[in-house]
Amino acid sequence: MKNIFLFLTLLVLSVSANAQQNQKVQDSTKTEKLDEVLVKAVRVDADSPITHSNVSKEELAKRNLGQDIPILLNYLPSIVTTSDAGAGIGYTGIRVRGISGGSTNVTINGIPYNDAESLGTFWVNLQDFSSSVENLQVQRGVGSSTNGAGAFGASVNILTDAVSKESSGETSHSFGSFNTRRHNVKFSTGLLNNAVEISGRLSQIKSDGYIDRATSDLKSYFVQGSYVNNGTLIKAIAFGGQEITYQSWYGFNAVDVAAVDANPNIDKNRRYNISGIQLDDDGNFEGFYENQVDNYKQDHYQLHWNQRWDNSWSTNLGLNYTNGRGFFEEYVDNYYYSNVFFASDATFDFLGKTPITVNGETIDSQDYIRRRWLDNNFYVLNASVNYKNERVNFISGVSYSSYHGDHFGELIWEQYANDNNFGDRYYDGDGDKYDFSTFAKVTYRLNDDLSLYGDLQYRAVNYDTSGVNSDLDVFEIDKAYGFFNPKIGFNYSLNTTSDVYFSFARANREPSRGDFENNADIKPEELNDFELGWRYQNNNVGINANAYYMAYNEQLVATGALDNSGAQIRDNTGESYRLGLEVEANIVLGDVTLQPNFTLSSNKNRETFFKRDGVLQNLGETNIAFSPNLVAANALTYNVAPNFAVAFLSKYVGEQYMGNIDAESSKLDSYFVNDLNLVYEIKPKSIFKSIVLTGLVNNIFGERYISNGFFFTFDDDFSNPGTVTTIEGSGFYPQATTNFLVGATLKF
After folding, report:
1. Domain range holding 499?
2. Whole-prediction pTM value?
3. In whole angstroms, how far apart are CA 174 and each of 183, 206, 696?
């Protein structure tokens, strides 16, 4: 790895020194517009009746020191983020308006990124990806029609690096708390012969994590070749990497901690990690398995052809192939699984083995080590056409994807080896998914003040599975869905500084693989989204205010419980709704900029039934899990000098329930966290074009907060025979107290 970094650094210096000579380049404005065509089919314009936020490369760079993209978006309206490892590196998550990442649509250059089966977005597989992002757009609510899984609360549309007309090179290095370090190197040849650019990035991030043993070892690459000629842009892009993270996805659960500590306390043990625990036959703690890791590789190959035929017509064709393969390795401790976790995984019966006799004793369970694998292939074809004149902006397109995933488990060590060989599979299954969608959307400017918006999408999904799942149950699903998703709206200019807009949008979304594993009869969910907004903009003040009402039928929400791979279990909740007000502003006062935002909301299940102590109860209207009623943020930036900026960032998240029955034990307390961000740029007269020094102090006041967790119940009819008692339990993901990152970016 060090040799590769050295090679790329030398390449950067060579490119910067030579490619700038005698280079004539075409109009960069036209090039940038062609780059934007990659995402035009899934994005909206500034005056669209869709609630959205745009984030530029420059804004991302201010805090880009190795943390995942969700953490960099933390201060946008209605967003709540969390980190399993506690410090924003490794497995991170994002919720928008209380809606999980599994219901947030993510595209990269218009290509769906969400995992086709789980529907989730695994940001850990986009290592240091923010260093290759040109800009992104977050649409809240249903938004416009997009490719891939339906946007059920938000979509994040990412555009990767645009074509650069000038050669460049840079290398970034950052260091910080928990032995965190990030190193990358980037280069661009600029446009050679007025037509061809080659650019790339190589990155490595390592961190020990805030949570015990929650280490991350992340390596990634990004390579892009571009051809530009008149109205033609062709891009070939390859990116990917490997993540090896020590598992920290089970959080803090007092029952688990009690296995090694007679007085478990989250304040005392908030960094505790149960993963990999090893106990002897009497339950005495022996240590932790050192290779309890998630090990996954993912490579993406994209080809895009953007063509501007004349001033009105343009087309885009996108092709994608993604290959993902990897496993998580797990030490299955017999005592822990049998007596603490109350699961049968350690038994011979679970593994399909026959009990054996050792020294006259019958053995029917054991310790062992397993790897649970996922090997998948994902193909995508996108095509769109755009017609635009002074009054009409029309875009239509199709998207087709094909996914195949192999799911299997291997035993790599057993306490009692029996007749197994290394790598023998103890379960094997697969999943296939085919997704076709077509859309047409138009913005028609009726006059100088009023524009109308219409968007129609039809999406057909087929999903089938075969074989046996990780619980060793026969898992055979064969489902087909057809979804019609209409959207309408208008934007009206009140005067030169303010607009009002309204939109209605419908979305439908299929269940995930995990949903089917927990409930074979689970239903798809439907959302009707109403948005009413006002935008104001003058030279120094910008304000966006938006009221929304999101009415759900059979919404899939987290029950609070986790499955055996640490993922939230979801279930249909019948009718529910989210009613909210979002307000954000950008206020420039000389050298000081204020960017406050807040969301006030009410998020309710209309009627909830729950069986407590063996008796079915109607709890009436309850709060939807993981949906705080107040989320607020502010960024106060002071430009001390043209090359020196200091930003004070604040985030408040109100209390929230982790389940849907309003149990006090499921409540997460509110928290208020503040960060300090410093950016200082030096422009030397030789060697470097620029040296950017960045400092970030996260949670500067040391708030001991928890941003995520889980809640579960079970009925105990064993302790007191003849009586059923409902037991409640909770787990938590504590986030890091005060921590820092510092970095330097050297630009050639």
Report:
1. 2-747
2. 0.91
3. 7, 11, 10
